[in-house]
Proto-oncogene Mas-like (Pogona vitticeps), 276 residues
Amino acid sequence: MIILAIPICILGLFANAMVFYFLCSKVKKTKFTVYFMNMIFADIIVLLYQYTYFMLFLKPTEVTASVSNFLELTYMLAYNSGLYVLTALCAERCVLVFFPIWYRSHRPKHFSFLVCALSWIFSALVSIMEYFTCYPRFYAYLDEDSYGCYFQTIFQIIIFLIFVPIMAISTLAIFIRMKQKVRQGPPAPIDVTITAVVIFFLIFDSSVRVYNFLEYWYDALGVPLFTISVLFDAIARGIDPFLFFFVGYCSERECDPLEVFVERSLQDERNRVEGT
């Protein structure tokens, strides 16, 4: 699985870096661009960690404890942030789709930046707490059966059961509204992009998280499921840029530069028509 995951990591890193550059300098900024920028940035960090981890596994190299600790903590920070930012994106988009007038009159300025910043701060707090209570990989004295590790695992499950349903229900509502308005014209590309991103998140990323929770209580799950989760984690972090390219291409069916595909995949046709 690691042999399969390495080229996926490399391709995903290249594609994510390209999309991140487009979002920063080429693509017209919207209310939702900052969410996608933060998601892509988190994916880049996770993919960098995975590639480093895989290469160290294939070719063992001495790494200092401080470097190992930094890599693990950075990975958890980006891993958790991706979930929180994507959930915030889906929730805000759902509010805009169903309550456009209220949304435009009550949305605070720079709301997206504030939400993303809070997501990273919350992720940092959760990751630090998780690392020092329930990560025995580098600290022999940490016990997975300790009360701290037990309550931390329960806390992570609660967070998962709060954020993922919000994400899924918001996306389902967006999809239903999108299908209801199909007679009025093609759906907004950003709605298609969000739906596709969430579907693949639920298939690949969520399955890895569920495995991690189950493995805490059932060690018998063992290596086979772990190796599959390694591959799924790599796919989950590397697939988003290709979804942007695909949705952007399908919106017009024209061979344009890649940055045009990315910009097109994040367009809200209704907002553009209304001049906002």
The CA atoms of residues 4 and 246 lie 23 Å apart.
